[in-house]
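re: ur question from yesterday

yeah so i grabbed the chain u mentioned. its 152 aa long if i counted rite. heres the sequnce exactly as i have it in my notes:
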Amino acid sequence: MEIRRPNDSEYQKILLLTPQAIHDGTMGGSVPTDVKVKQLVEPLLEKGSYYLIATEDGTLMGWILIGSSKDQFTEKAYGFIYELFVMEEFRGKGISKKLMATATEDFERDGYLEARLSVYAGNQAIKLYEKMGYKNRTITMSMPIKSKSKLK
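ran it thru and got these structure tokens back, copy pasting raw so excuse formatting
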């Protein structure tokens, strides 16, 4: 297995598959359009984020989108994992772990002292993240609102 940055055709394939990746990552809660995917991804890439892909014999198996962000309170920069996806037929083979480890190496090389990510509650990837040392930092909660009139 090789972990590297994608070429242009691999990048285009990632963009085509990203709606499925987001669907899976949000536990079926979202299926963005191709236009929305570009609106989400292009600003990240313009600010220096980049993809790493896992391939074997020319087959794209998965990817990770990494970059940086700043803590809103301390202004300290940290490495951030924006997306991690392994295609269904390649899951359970350690690809996510290898992509995460490579991302961590890149963060360390770039001088970050911390890495962060966001994950939907119930996502099986949480187990991997915890094994790698990630811990809950913040929790975002939601509640469906059926009707505004009930709040009065």
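noticed a couple things. The chain is about 35% helix and 25% strand. also Residues 8-25 form the longest helix (18 residues).
anyway ttyl
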